[in-house]
Amino acid sequence: MPTADLTGRVALVTGGAGGIGSAAARRLAKLGARVVVLDLDAAGAERVASAVGGLAVQGDVTDPATMPAVVARVEEELGRLDVVLLNAGIGGGQAGIDDALDVGRYRKLVGVNVDHVVYGVCAAVPALRRQCGGKIVITASLAGLAAMPADPLYTLTKHAVVGYARAAGQALAGEGIVVSALCPGFVDTLLLGAAKEEFDAVAFPLLTPSDIADALESVLSEGEPGEAWVIQPGGKASAYRFRGVPGAGQLPPDVVLGRV
What we know:
Number of helices: 8
Order of helices and strands: EHEHEHEHEHEHHEEH
Largest sheet: 8 strands, mixed
Shape: globular
Structural class: alpha/beta
Radius of gyration: 19 Å
């Protein structure tokens, strides 16, 4: 696996107190970065930051004011920002395909999984421009590339951020800002909830947070703008190869004219 050298760089990790966030913070610190750990869980953020010699920040990433304030604080206290891992995320917990929709839970899901990513990119880009480039990595999911019928709303949010990473990556590539997404399969973290027992019962292979940290390191060292990296147990993380959209000449006339 290629090694990223982050000596003298500053990295920000959202959801940094959780399983993937904690592993990522430790890996970024090992690569030489000064790490800022942002989480709603103040004690958890402090615990991880203390372990890596970084800075802990408590904040709600669904609040539009949080990410700009955190980025401003990072630049003021640490002088720069080079790497951003937008990792905070939650599960859907409801189908979202009938009239039993819990709107409050739905809005929270979208706030954490989608809004926070947009707020994070918008806040980070000016800081990265001041360094003439940098890296933004979004923790998405395999559910951002394929349907997950057990959780349609989660699938919706992860498809959204994969599409956002692909488009933003292309839009910012000319400025030396590389935006990409990590798309792991099932990871052994608290996000699995009760499903963990079901996976264990059938010996279903799960990724570990360390596997995601490995993939993050690969993306930072060799990732290209707009890529979505797939991570599955037993395999090497790699960029997903999207199929091209058929051109007009390849589609039936009725499709081109909008009749079907």
